Amino acid sequence: MLYILELLGVACFAVSGVAASRAKRPDLIGAVILAFATALGGGIIRDAILGVPAQSFRDTNYFAAIVVGSLLALQLPRVIQRLGSPLRVADAFGLGLFNAAGMMKAYESGTVDPAFAVVLGAVTGTGGGIIRDVLCGEMPSLLRPGELYVTTCLAGGLAGLVALWLGASTGIASAIIAGVTIGFRLVAIRFEWRLPAVMHWED
Fold it and tell me: Contact, 87 vs 142, CB < 8 A?
């Protein structure tokens, strides 16, 4: 289950990487490089924190998932456009799927506290998007004032943690984490929900 979630997340983040590259008008190689960086960034950060070899470099299915996601984004731009904002929609799905895979991998490792597994899930989910935005010269969604981005990951992770404490299987907990994160993020985008500003910086 976690393996499938991660591959789906990789494909979704590859789509978001290519979609983000369109504004910069790179060549084909540039778009694919951005897709790879977006798709693999969060998982590599997670595995580095857990002290395990990066799974993505040992499994050709990750490469295939990135290629499939990139080709879909390159060949079907109009279809993706009909979903709304292609970057934000693809990013929402990648965010939720990576959040679920990252949190459950950390939880099942037995090396971190469950609360920090939630945090590590959020790091996994947001890592690729941060790398994508930095490479595109944009403010990362994580740092945009009031943006409900990492908040959606934490909400999904906490929902999954409660499900595990209530005896849910890892498969059901993973689905809950992904579903809550994706749903929360898409609703926040649709209705432009934002967190209130609580800090006012003086010059």
Answer: no
Pick from 174, 167, 168, 169: which is nearest to 117 by CA? Answer: 174
Q: Which residues pair with 194 in a beta bridge?
A: 147
pLDDT tens figures, 40-66: 999 999 999 999 888 888 899 999 999
pTM: 0.88
Straight-line distance from the first to the last Cα atom of the chain, in angstroms, rounded to the nearest whole number: 50
Residues 6+ apart with CB under 8 A from 119: 154, 157
Where do the domains of the chain lie? 2-191
Q: How far is CA 194 from CA 58, 152, 184, 197, in A?
A: 39, 11, 12, 9
Say yes or no to pLDDT of 79 above 70.
no
